Amino acid sequence: MLIGGIQKSSLIDYKGKIAAVVFLQGCNFSCPYCHNPELVLGGQNNSIYKEDVLSFLKTRVNKLDGVVISGGEPTLHNDLEEFIQQIKSLGFKVKLDTNGTNPKILFSLIENSLIDYVAMDIKSSLDEYKTVTRKDVDIKKIETSREIILNSNIDYEFRTTVVKNLLTFNSFVKINNEFDKLRGSNKIKRYYLQKFQKSKHVDESYINAQTFDDETLDKVVELFKNSVETVCVR
Description:
Blueprint (H helix, E strand, L loop, with lengths): L2 E8 L8 E6 L12 H5 L8 H9 L7 E5 L9 H9 L4 E6 L4 H9 L5 E5 L7 H5 L5 H12 L4 E8 L6 H15 L4 E8 L18 H10 L4 E6 L1
Parallel strand pairs: 2-3, 3-4, 4-5, 5-6, 6-7, 7-8
Antiparallel strand pairs: 1-2
């Protein structure tokens, strides 16, 4: 397992909990706006040993509520389940951040009660995934991961980073239509619209990218009111 970094304490990455965030290296997407290029593109020589992370977490028992496994894309790592088992054995709640491209691992983690919360990125409407991720995407796997989450008892959220030149208002009309087909008679629990923030990016030209203006974001929020229980901008 390649661990690219650890944030020792966070109040915002795991809803309602104080958590450490562990960042795993490697991603099968190349979203140009991604603010973790060192995790996506590789080239880091300062990987952290798994044993060192576990040793740190042992010192935070009864001080932290949980651990967020983020990336990169965590489900690319063959030893992810073993790593999470070790974290759970310390008594922590575990949240997984994922892009949904590995439904088999996602299902196993949920089925074996290894994760307590999952945040899945909705990069775009299904027909625009290749444009946003700059990769050939098996859309069926994305759909399956959404279904697994909604058919489980796990707590969850979906989220989309709003980048103006990659997504349009119509992109969200299509996402809402997908949600309507997916959710059945129950509303989707949470959907967050994440404003694009200037930072370091996979594609350096995206330093000049923009998010939607507040008026347009308000219209997008209104769009999802009938399909999502909690939809908001953050």
